[in-house]
Design brief:
The protein is mainly beta. The chain has one helix spanning 35-44, and strands spanning 15-21, 27-33, 48-51, 56-59, 67-75, 82-89.
Length: 111
């Protein structure tokens, strides 16, 4: 069920969506959703983002085939961030071909 209180105004009409593998609990990626992409995600059962660079809806996997089937959607306590638990179809969530977008560690010597 979608909360009617999601605050899309804080992010200029966009809400961050953290994508987590339902099986491994690994964080796969972060994307942004607007009202339309969230509605499409819920209606299709597959994650759809708003592409900030291309300024259009973007169905994850439309080019790579690595789709994200929604299992559950959680809303944080401030109702301004989503955590979407997914089943990854394919081998990677990242456009680089890596399993997760989070593969580079920020080290102390780089701060």
């Amino acid at each position: 069920m979608i909360s009617a209180n999601l605050d899309l105004r804080k992010g200029g009409g966009l809400i961050p969506a953290i994508i987590q593998d339902e099986q491994t609990k690994a964080i796969l990626m972060l994307g942004y959703m607007n009202e339309e992409s969230l509605g499409r995600s819920v209606s299709t059962g597959f994650v759809c983002f708003w592409s900030r660079s291309r300024k259009k809806l973007w169905m994850k996997g439309e080019e790579s085939g690595n789709t994200l089937r929604i299992k559950r959607i959680f809303v944080d306590c401030d109702e301004d961030t989503l955590l979407i638990s997914v089943e990854l179809s394919g081998i990677s969530a990242c456009h680089t071909g890596k399993y997760s977008c989070f593969f580079t560690e920020l080290r102390e010597d780089s701060l």
